[in-house]
Design a protein that fits this description.
single chain; 354 residues; alpha/beta; Rossmann fold; 2 domains; six-stranded parallel beta sheet; five-stranded mixed beta sheet; 14 helices; 16% strand
Amino acid sequence: MDVFGSGAEQVVFCSDPGSGLRAVIAVHSTALGPALGGTRFHPYATEDEAVADALRLARAMSYKNSLAGLDLGGGKAVVIGDPRTDKTEARLRAYGRFVEAMGGRYLTACDVGTTNADLDVVARETRFAHGRSEVHGGCGDSSVLTAFGVFQGMRAAAQHRWGEPTLSGRTVAVAGVGKVGGWLVDRLVADGADVLVTDVDPAAVERVRARHPGVEAVADTAALVRRPADVYAPCALGGALDDATVAVLQAEVVCGGANNQLAHEGIADQLTARGILYAPDYLVNAGGVIQVEDERHGFSFARAEAKAAGIFDVALRVFDTAATEGVSPAVAADRLAEERIASVGRLAIIRLPR
């Protein structure tokens, strides 16, 4: 694992044998401000796998926060373990102490395997834990605005591809209907879309169908991607778009809430070659981080929602830039994010009086 060649500013290895904590905190960039990113609790097979995931996710957070217009850099933490059996108060509090020791360079929040209640525990040891539960003055479940942002990105894709910013009359295939995917289905049904869903958890599918009996359940993701649809929305874990999936994908648009959807960089070009419009994941799923960032200023859901609505305009800019420059939307989004990091980040050299 070439940590020094990864582009990250800092990687912190956190070990507390007493609690069993093994964690990695990766800070990709602080050019725009402190690095904000969630804490993922996952049973990685190896330490190298955990480090690679932290580095990859931290970079995506730098780009996500940049495109969202936030004065924040990007970071990510991963805790090695099964959240169902290994998550303890001692382990979470030990992790909180490591976050505190970073002095505010890294701000943590929820991610896969962690909850608002977990961040309440982490916050007992650090000032830099956000995305806390509402009873503790936090913003609560950030999946609400994550789904809202994905929906805005999907509307922008519809505008770019079909000339109307609506999914009404379109078929949308949603893979993964947990918190984000479930909220997204609510938005899509309200907008008049026909929705297909699948999830590895049958209970998640049943919860969605209980609210929306007209939603059709599909056996698995392999079957879902082969179904004719206008939009494919991957909303589970990363790597959903690999060579095999793109080769058989029937949708004209890909826009979903999962992080790191592209299995490798060449996937973006494969999608473009097939005429499939890809909405970069870190652009459209930024609603959650916008919600968490707003908590730092005394949370207002209305204010955070208004800012998340801006994902529509940014997505249109990305699609238009990609078309004008003859590149994939993934490349266009990277360029726009990098331009802001470079131009605004350079202002750090202008010293303000103390």
